Amino acid sequence: xxxxxxxxxxxxxxxxxxxxxxxxxxxxxxxxxxxxxxxxxxxxxxxxxxxxxxxxxxxxxxxxxxxxxxxxxxxxxxxxxxxxxxxxxxxxxxxxxxxxxxxxxxxxxxxxxxx
Amino acid sequence: xxxxxxxxxxxxxxxxxxxxxxxxxxxxxxxxxxxxxxxxxxxxxxxxxxxxxxxxxxxxxxxxxxxxxxxxxxxxxxxxxxxxxxxxxxxxxxxxxxxxxxxxxxxxxxxx
Lengths: 115, 112
What we know:
The complex is a heterodimer. By secondary structure, chain A is an all-beta fold. Chain A is 0% helix and 52% strand. In chain B, a hairpin with a 7-residue loop joins strand 9 (87-94) and strand 10 (102-103). Chain B is 0% helix and 50% strand. The chains are: A mainly beta, B mainly beta. Chain A binds chain B through residues 4, 33, 35, 42-47, 50, 91, 93, 95, 100-103, 105-108, and chain B through 31, 33, 40-45, 48, 58, 88, 90, 92, 94, 96-103, 105-106.
């Protein structure tokens, strides 16, 4: 079974600085997708970024970028120029094989951005 | 506006009662999902449906039931057999073959 592990329960960063959230996963599949979701205090789940495993190029969405290391099964999220609105719980998730859309989630990392 | 609507936002249930959580989407998505979120844990899959009139159990289906009579709707019933139903429930949908899921705003269920 696929598993997703986020080893940092909580992190904090100063406004305008850069922070990296870690994620590792375990799978025997070759084709899969990885995602980072953000859950602010409103509890609405928001897709931050996605990465297709067959693409070597790391995904980027404005201030958010990933470091995808397929061989190491690592998928970290870098947030540049952190903003107060980035304060949220961040979940790493996986969907693979025939289970596309059926996401497996990590435990989450609470990120607090301080002014 | 297109999206996923969950209702109610807060729900209280007495022990021994069944309750139904509503989930409606107007995104024309084929697949729909129910997740449960507990404090300190990630989301866990309860049930999912890839097409109308068909659904499959997820990782924690015991004590729950669903139906998928219409493409737009995927209600979740929390039965009295669910021993610890107090949690935050999230409904999601996705286009088959496109993988990311879009989520509703959630329902907070509390047993009183």
